[in-house]
Write a structure and sequence with these properties.
Shape: elongated
CATH topology of the largest domain: Transferase(Phosphotransferase), domain 1
Number of domains: 6
Strand order of the largest sheet: 1-2-3-4-6-5
Strand content: 15-25%
Structural class: alpha+beta
Number of helices: 32
Radius of gyration: 43 Å
Distance between the termini: 63 Å
Length: about 900
């Protein structure tokens, strides 16, 4: 604000240049009071400093408190003016009906329907009259529109304003007039009749009924879109009112539910005119009828009986039904029409509703406009014409719903009919953004023969195509899309996938193609094996449940490959990226399966497992020595033979990769790996212990000569034997952890020496020896107990603490739970009351066991300790757990 135009009086601030309006007794400015935006009404005082005008308005504004009356926020004055700080409103009613090119035109949200506006005005006026006050200057300029922003959107409220001429009235609603006040075209007949007479001599009585007449004029003004019931200009209005000639009343249809009410409000004689209270009552009755009419309109638009729809809708409009009325879901007649209607008159019905001024861009509660609904639900033969019409009539074709989806998103997601494909092409042609992202960042999905996916929901890529996350018949899938050039490979992959049906092979769900691409709908998996060994900060890092123990992974891979070979097929591209992890959620928990994938390079083989090679295929660092040896040679001349044994070699490399936690057996880079494979580096140079039960198996799989290499079937058999051995060794681990007895008498040694040199060495050697075999430190028995559980249940020797440390150091899952939901701390507190209990609890909590965990009965460690033990150690343990923050309740 410039210093010359800024005003600050009693905390009311405004700029004289920021003018909102001007009247006979003052001006209104936009301003602030205590940081809140307000309207400032400034009224000039009389020469002697009195302010009867402002004083009169102030008196009534302080008295009147109602949602439909403008609120007084503050008032103050100086030598020349009185300042009223009033609730700031968006516009006055007359601004609604200005021409679009008028700068003063109301540009806010649409007003409520006509009857809601009438009802708000009527309840406001009834309240004014109930306070024994008459307004006396009712006209559109003194009716304001307040817009509030709520969680449900913008809410417009209608408010009475400007109480300069207001007066108190008697119990009977009358007052002694000292003159006619107000705005001439908005006078009542009785006021017009006495204009110019000296009322001080006659002592004429005025009545609140004149307010009702003016309110009736306002109702007519709204229905006539800004025209006066009695004429087009001030002279005609005065003449016609004196003759009681409502020249424009004929434009309000005889059947309109407001017509009869307005006629009662415009009764010429005040004594027979209805009261403001009766206006409210009649409006309530009308609103009940209108609700039924709105329901009928919606039902009509959902009904496919076409012959009467135009006439029926017009009749409803004639009685005053709100064409834009919405149901509880925010659906108007156009939304419902686009959802349900599919008759030959569908397009005509859309035209009619828009012709009758329905808001074509209105949105439902979920943010959908009519075009969204049409594209989501309607797949009739008239879909194309309806889309064209809506866009031609100016619907917002780029609009998005609350999920950020535009019409194209919805069309792609919900339909696969011939009409929908044409509609997709039409929307793209008409400029709807194909690459628009929804609220989750997803772009328009591709929909080909029921296979749906979004181009930016990308899972991975290979030499021949890309893989996306998608759906088919409601099922989540992986979509492999391959460019159709070189289609013989794709046909081969399709043929092979159709032959394979095994739990350790990714399943083909559906296949289709178009002019450009082949689309494989495949079982959706969670990750590939290489993602398990990525750095923890890497986004593609597998973050699902832990894989089964190594030998279980080997066994699943081996049985899958054995099945592939039994079908006289070779995979030819075995590597961690083509091994997938599938996690299924079952009643028993998460079920994890390892699956072979990507059969793009697969081939049929002979009975002997051989095939004639036409080239070297696959990924170089996972080649067998025989494949690496013939790279670069002209195999079309030599007709070299390939063998399924190369798959076994690559599988052996994968086994080593898993044992080495993501490192290749033969080196750190492609050059080093190729050199070491062709030289067949001795396994002793590899970081897999000599005693490991997989070591001999992997050596047999990595035999450099294919003829001496074991078969995929022999791999499965050997793994079966190994699994049996491991089961026994896991039982030994559990027995070791449950055993308190020692055959050697070390009692002559001091305790610290026993802990340091004897027990630690004894149990470490035994457990480490088992680990070297490849035993799973986390192996569980049928009740879900692992070695740490057994240790905490059965061991109360002086060496319990050393053993707990050792198991956790060797990688046991300290938070693993038994079938009944108990972790090691629960078991320790339920069963162990030895003198080492305190130290064991401290150690487990120090090593970050979940101290707040509960078992399946909802009990934590503290509750189990209180329930099962009463030794001196247990009381100290209870105090310790409470001190460490375990919840006593």
């Amino acid at each position: 604000m410039s210093s010359t135009t800024a005003v600050n009086v009693g905390g009311i601030q405004f700029d004289r240049n920021d003018l909102l309006g001007r009247g006979g007794y003052g001006s209104v400015y936009r301003g602030k009071y205590k940081g809140k935006s307000i309207a400032v009404k400034r009224i000039m005082k009389e020469k002697d400093g009195r302010d009867p005008i402002a004083g009169n308005e102030l008196k009534f504004l302080q008295q009147l408190r109602h949602p439909n009356i403008v609120k007084l926020v503050h008032f103050t004055s100086d030598v020349d003016f009185t300042y009223l700080a009033l609730e700031l409103c968006g516009a006055s009613l007359d601004q609604v009906f200005l021409s679009e090119d008028d700068l003063r035109k109301y540009k806010g949200p649409a007003l409520p329907n006509d009857f809601e506006v009438f009802s708000q005005l009527a309840t406001g006026l009834r309240y004014i009259h109930s306070q024994r006050v008459i307004h006396r200057d009712i006209n559109p300029t003194n009716i304001l529109i307040s817009v509030k922003h709520t969680d449900q959107g913008e809410e417009a409220t209608i408010k009475w304003a400007d109480f300069v001429f207001a007066r108190e009235v008697s119990e009977r609603g009358t007052f002694t007039m000292s003159g006619v006040k107000g705005t001439l075209p908005w006078f009542s007949p009785e006021e017009m009749e006495i204009m110019g007479r000296d009322l001080r001599i006659e002592k004429t009585k005025g009545s609140i009924k004149s307010d009702v007449f003016k309110e009736g004029l306002v109702f007519g003004y709204i229905l006539l879109n800004g025209r006066h019931i009695y004429g087009e200009n001030e002279y005609d209005i005065v003449v016609n009112m004196k003759q009681n000639n409502r020249v424009n009343m004929s434009e309000i249809h005889q059947k309109h539910l407001a017509r009869n009410l307005i006629e009662k409000m415009l009764t010429y004689t005040p004594d027979t005119r209805i009261t403001s209270e009766e206006v409210v009552d009649q409006l309530q009755s009308i609103k009940t009828k209108l609700i039924e009419g709105e329901k009928h309109l919606h039902q009509l638009c959902a009904d496919n009986c076409p012959t009467h729809i135009r006439d029926s809708i017009k009749i409803l409009m004639q009685i005053g039904v709100d064409i834009n009325a919405e149901n509880i879901f925010g659906w108007n007649a156009l939304h419902i029409l686009c959802r349900y209607h599919s008759s030959s008159h569908f397009v005509d019905a859309i035209k009619l509703l828009i012709e009758l001024s329905i808001d074509k861009n209105a949105k439902t509660n979920d943010g959908s406009n009519a075009l969204h609904i049409l594209c989501r639900y309607n797949s009739s033969s008239h879909l194309i014409d309806a889309i064209k019409l809506l866009i031609e009539l100016g619907i917002d074709k780029a609009a998005k719903n609350n999920d950020g989806k535009n019409a194209l998103h919805l069309l792609y997601e919900c339909h696969s009919s011939p009409q929908s494909f044409q509609a997709i092409e039409l929307l793209i042609e008409l400029g709807v953004d194909l690459n628009a992202e929804d609220i989750n960042g997803s772009t328009i999905p591709v929909n080909v023969d029921g296979i749906q996916f979004a181009r930016n929901d990308f899972l991975g890529s290979g030499t021949y195509g890309h893989v996306y996350r998608g759906t088919y018949k409601g099922q989540s899938i992986a979509v492999k899309r391959i460019l159709r050039s070189g289609a013989q490979n794709h046909d081969n992959e399709l043929k092979i996938l159709k032959q394979l049906d095994h739990p350790n092979i990714v399943k083909l769900v559906h296949f289709t193609s178009n002019a450009d691409f082949d689309y494989f709908a495949l079982e959706l998996c969670d990750a590939s094996l290489d993602q398990v060994f990525l750095n923890g900060k890497d986004n593609p890092k597998y973050k699902g449940p832990a894989l089964p123990n190594n030998f279980e992974v080997f066994y699943q891979l081996a049985t899958g490959l054995k099945y592939i070979h039994s079908k006289k097929l070779i995979h030819r591209d075995i590597k961690p990226e083509n091994i997938l992890i599938s996690v299924k959620h079952t009643d028993q928990g998460e079920e994890l399966m390892i699956k072979w994938a990507d059969f793009g390079l697969s081939r049929e083989v002979s009975e002997r497992g051989t095939f004639t090679m036409s080239g070297v295929k696959g990924t170089k660092i996972w080649f067998s020595p025989e494949v690496m040896e013939i790279m670069g040679r002209d195999l079309q001349i030599e007709k070299a033979k390939g063998s399924i044994k190369s798959d076994v070699y690559a599988e052996g490399l994968v086994f080593g990769y898993i044992l080495l936690k993501g490192k290749h057996i033969y080196g750190e880079n492609a050059l080093e790996i190729a050199k070491n494979i062709t030289k067949s580096v001795n396994m002793s140079e590899i970081g897999i212990h000599q005693k490991h039960l997989a070591r001999t198996l992997i050596e047999q799989m990595l035999t450099s000569t294919p003829e001496k290499r074991i078969t995929s079937e022999e791999v499965v058999n050997q793994l079966g034997d190994i699994k049996n051995k491991l089961t026994e060794e896991e039982k030994n681990l559990h027995r070791l952890c449950a055993d308190q007895c020692r055959t050697t008498d070390y009692s002559i040694l001091p305790q610290w020496m026993f802990d340091t040199f004897v027990y630690r060495s004894d149990i470490r050697d035994k457990i480490e020896s088992l680990i070297q075999l490849g035993i799973d430190i986390n192996a569980k028995d049928k009740d879900g107990w692992n070695a740490l559980h057994f240790l905490c249940r059965n061991n109360s020797s002086p060496h319990l603490i050393v053993a707990i440390k050792l198991l956790i150091e060797l990688g046991i899952d300290k938070n693993a739970k038994t079938n009944d939901g108990s972790n090691a701390l629960h078991i320790l507190c339920e069963y162990n009351s030895s003198q080492h209990l305190i130290d064991a609890i401290k150690l487990l909590i120090e090593l970050e066991i979940d101290k707040a965990a509960k078992n399946n009965d909802g009990k934590n460690a503290l509750q189990l300790l209180c329930r099962h033990n009463s030794s001196p150690q247990s009381f100290q343990a209870i105090e310790l757990l409470i001190k460490l923050g375990v919840d006593l309740r």
